[in-house]
Model the fold of this input.
Amino acid sequence: MGGDKAVLTGVHFMSGDIACAEGAIAAGCRFFAGYPITPATEIAEHMAARMPEVGGIYIQMEDEIASIAAVIGASYAGLKAMTATSGPGFSLMQENIGLAVMTEAPCVIVDVMRGGPSTGQPTLPGQQDVMQVKWGSHGDYEIIALAPSSVQEMFDFTVEAFNLAETYRVPTFVMADEIVAHMWERVVIPPPENIRIVNRKKPSVSRDDYMPFMPDDDLVPPMACFGEGYRFHATGLTHDERGYPRTQDSEVQTRLVQRLCDKIRKNADKIVRVEEVMLDDADVVVVAYGIVARSALSAVRRAREQGVKAGLLRLITLWPFPGKHVAKAAEKAKAIIVPEMNCGQIVREVERAAKTTPAYHVPKLGENPHTPMEIFAAIRRHG
Amino acid sequence: MRIEIRFAGFGGQGIIKSGIMTAMAACIYGGKHAVQTQSYGPESRGGACKSEVVISYSEIDFPKITEPDILVLMSQHAYNEYAEDVKKGGTIILDPDMIPNEKKLEGVKIFRVPATRIAEELGRTIVANVVMLGALTAITGVVDKEALKEAIKANVPKGTEELNLKAFERGYEYGKKLVEG
Done:
């Protein structure tokens, strides 16, 4: 579906938002429902132009609650579906994100983070939703979240987000920020045959034997689509393998919720991605993600030039949290520096994983990420 | 080599587009690394607006500007806000009709290009930013002239290519005269 116009193979100069939309299209996304919000508006704008070109559907919904609801419906109907928003819209989506988790609807949600709380600073960046993405909806659950640092990664990670969503039947998040989203950089879009695409597992049993929530060994149930002739009951209530509500049954609640968590936790080694730079002999480890990781890389290089053994652990996957990688890097290190565009969020996870190695948070709010000098100064101070 | 350029003015002057076209020229048509970032207020027109470009021979880590080598200023507000940020020995290119009040700045090369007036002469104020790009190219040589023309063609609305290239040439000539004295 989509033909020649689906993958814009070639070298481009693009903004992060546009690269994100193109990544989605290249991954096979053919449904976008959203409500425009700075700094994610250009994703919706680009999708509005591009969806009709590739045989897809674009709907501007009345709000973000409806947007994520429509995405879940489209996913159940068999399409790869996405929405994109920023903080205030992300807050509105939280209840239905729980519904996507509970009904195991593969979908991609892009949160282009701006300064909060509330409407905050619409045109300025932040990394203030990195805990909300994990804990924002009620109940116990696990999701997958990726943090791009460049326009190229806005393309690549959106493709990857669809692959992960389809593999694990879980909402998957691209946690961008205003800078990465509005920044223009060179992007290389590979030919379609060089882009890895994963599609959800389809049922291999007969229609009579199919149960929509009966997992395989990897804890992920194969997914029939509505209209394909399989019996399919879906609900936000606790349900058994047939999808029927079991609101009084402790055993079913235990089995279902534990599996929803375990399908991510037990596959974490396959999901987690980090970038490790000069960590082998590092006394000071900088743990960073998103746009801040670029300043951190610059700071680490500067430190090395001056004889300070610094290294960078860049978190590509924020959730599931790369705790093992942090623990390993912490073993030999004297100190860990965690620069974030918030008042201290991921640093708490870093502290948990680093055990006795102290982790120092470097907060930054407002228009600019930390300069390389600011992170370098922290390396000096604690190294 | 890392060159930092900041374009600033108000929303609606094509400030952000200027940055995109410059970065695209350096990167896609010029073979260097380049990144453009931007900052603007919630208002789409009339609010303060800036666009920043980093050009480098090596990969660019930090994409923002700390000390601009070149400032292109198109409003009094932008001048008041940023003129003193320029690196020692750096360059300021400004539109004197938009910036009636200048301060005394030392150790800075200042070039006054009446881009808005030139654009008006061409019949469309909206191409003032492209006049500025022509002047920028002639004065600083920071991007290749042909590369920037390619970037302009790739970015302006269809049907306006000729007007924009004319605006670019007018700015280029004006800038060249300023340099040659």
Remarks:
- The interface with chain B takes residues 11-13, 38, 122-124, 179, 182-186, 291, 294-295, 297-298, 301, 367-369, 371-373 of chain A (CB under 8 Å).
- Residues 43 and 364 of chain A are 26 Å apart (CA to CA).
- The first helix of chain A runs from residue 16 to 27.
